[in-house]
Design brief:
Layout lengths: L1 H25 L6 H27 L8 H25 L7 H7 L1 H16 L3 H26 L7 H28 L2 H30 L1
Length: about 220
Amino acid sequence: MQYVLIMNSWVLICSLIGFIYGARRYFKPKKPIFLQLVTCAVACMMYARLFHVLFVLVQGGLNLGFDIGMLGIAGSLMFIMSANYGQMDSLVDDGTRKFLLTRIIALIAPVIVIGFFVLIFITIEFIEVRVSVAVVTFFMIPCAYYSLKHLIIYDVNLGLIRSLRPYNLLGILYAITIMMELFAEYNGIVPMYIVSMIVQGLITIAMVPVARKGVMRWTI
């Protein structure tokens, strides 16, 4: 379990840096709510990894099934989705048939997430694991959908979408790497686990700065 401790510590350090960066700059009056939500997402990532690091140190390994750390992962997905849906979606999609194809294509992301869930469900017999992954999948589906939708939808509002495409790409990668992590963790695939955690660490440290670069283009 040494590699589990190392990789969770890596993501913890990266998310801590990302959270400090966002909190110092954007938890102030008149700062963009979008960036505050993204910072909260990174804070949830940090919380999840802190719990997992402490759990491994105390128990010698991760819990088989749902734990408080999973709530942190679910919370990060909720905040990413909230930023995209609550702050952005009504600005870029007027609900007409004009964007129907985009909405359909964006369903690819939830399908991929559900595919990972099915793989875990059929390869792991423990009900605790199935319930745990089901909870994370529930929150991941809308997060992945809106991230992909805003990545591919064509820009109709003065560069609003184009400026946030790198951030939405990170959102999709985050969702995918979480599912990769869970699949690898419960199936004992160490190389996949390590790769997914390395990428997650890079995402957590980059998410707020990348979002800021996009937001500043349409708030200044």
